Known about the structure:
Blueprint (H helix, E strand, L loop, with lengths): L11 H35 L3 H36 L1 H10 L1 H23 L6 H30 L4 H4 L2 H5 L4 H24 L5 H32 L2 H10 L1 H27 L6 H25 L3 E3 L3 E2 L8 H7 L12 H11 L11 H4 L4 H9 L15 H12 L7 H5 L3 H12 L13 H4 L4 H9 L15 H16 L5
Antiparallel strand pairs: 1-2
Bound molecules: heme C (2 copies).
Amino acid sequence: MNYPFWDTATGYGLLMAGIAVFHVFISHFAIGGGLYLVVAETFARRTRDSARLAYLKGLSKFFVLTTLVLGAVTGVGIWFIIGLLNPAATEMLIHNFVWGWATEWTFFVVEIAAALIYLYGWDRMAAKDHQIVGWIYFGAAWMSLFIINGILSFMLTPGTWLATGNFWDGFFNPTFLSSLVLRTGVSILLAGLFSLLVAARLKDPSARAATVRYNTIWGLVGLAVMAPSLLWFWNAIPDSITQGAVDTMRLPLQAYEYSWWLAGVLAALLIVFGLLFSRRFSIIVAAVMMALGLVWFGSFEWMRESIRKPFVVYDYMYGNATELALADTYRDTGLLTHIEFRTGDDGADLFRHACRSCHTIDGYQPLKPAFDGTDPEYIAGIVLGTVALRGNMPPFLGTEEEAALIGDHIYGLIDQRHLAEITGAEGAELGKRVYDVRCGRCHVFGGYSDKAESILGMEAADLEDLLDMAGDLGEEMPAFTGDDVERAALIAYLTSLATDGGQN
Ligand code: HEC
Ligand code: HEC
């Protein structure tokens, strides 16, 4: 917590996702495209195919422009954003991998220089030298992947580094190899898809058909490398991580599973339009294939980022920069003493450091709707019980007094009217709203931590007792602090559910 908190109106997850997805597409294309260019050039020179050489020259211009300009801008953008969003995690990654970064940047400089020489060397250099520069480019680009892959995969599976703190243990971590092969496959796939986009615009029909077939092979090879290594990657992740994710991260995992169908469709399109009917190939087909490839890859990245939650470095540092190893210290001494830059408003500072990196009040992942119509005591109870909520949250690492300060702070920003007034509902209907707000974050009927068996079928009097002792039912479960109207409505709702067998 040695940094000030960057508090703006945006959702940090969205901001990061927006720039990272874009960068990741470009940077993988930068690797696969480099390989594609130099291999295709060698082939074209050997067969004295001047049409293909002209096409490659055009492609390399498009290639160098997109990868260098967009790749560099978004790459710097990522550093900028993560430095603002999570300076502690950024610092931790820099410290641990300082020589890794230095090596990666060296390769990056070589990559840029080689790309420029390659682009301007088409007519100025001897064919052989030009190809050597092409290989230098690809080698440097792939090596920069090799290094960044070690650091990225470390964040998900730090492996024995957690015990040893050794650079190489962290770098060659359990998902290093599968992830490297996978990303190499992605690079080849993207090279095929990007070059198909360019090939679709070639004028001469027979040159176009031949180039389309050639590029299609790249796409298919990329798919063939990527698909099995995705399974390999998944299996290389420790079960404790994947199982937890399957239980709590439904949406990204489902999106990822469905995305395999897109990969199937992509393979079919490649075979049909790229190989069988390559003369009919059009820019529209190319664009559809590109979109399918990007969505498939994008859903993998989303899955990979999601299953790490609530950690930023698994089992080491949480998304809000609190460190697992310091959990007891924070709980004993309080979180506030560890916050170096304070604004004078303790509740607001605590909220920023405990919750704000993942939630806004009323924008992205908003808390206001979850708390409207409740009270400071209840909110403080939820702060203390975050681990029991549906979703995947870090525990609150602070004292009870600090949780109360966060409760007061959030309460000051929500709709403070009672639920009956906000919703205009009464009776069992109001009761359902009370359940959703005060119980449903932690117990879903027929779903997460279902309590139907215990609650449904209880008499009203027993429910009264249950609500009286709610605060004692589970360590993370807050006391019932709703008003009398809400209490009666909740009981009416629960007894009405019991009579229709929990069908509602
Ligand atoms: C590392 C990220 C992270 C941090 C830090 C975090 N949360 Fe969450 N929170 C989540 C995620 C992810 C969900 C699940 C969202 C979903 O299911 O749509 C969630 C859900 C919630 C919900 C339920 C929202 C709903 O509408 O059902 C509440 C309430 C909540 N968090 C409160 C808090 C509070 C209070 C804090 C600070 C003490 C906090 N969270 C800190 C990630 C985080
Ligand atoms: C912050 C999360 C949270 C909220 C909110 C919450 N509970 Fe719980 N509840 C728990 C936890 C944790 C336990 C103890 C572990 C368990 O039994 O799953 C628990 C236990 C229970 C139990 C007893 C255990 C059993 O199986 O019989 C019942 C009944 C229950 N809750 C009902 C409710 C009702 C009704 C509400 C709303 C008034 C509510 N809970 C609100 C987290 C919560």
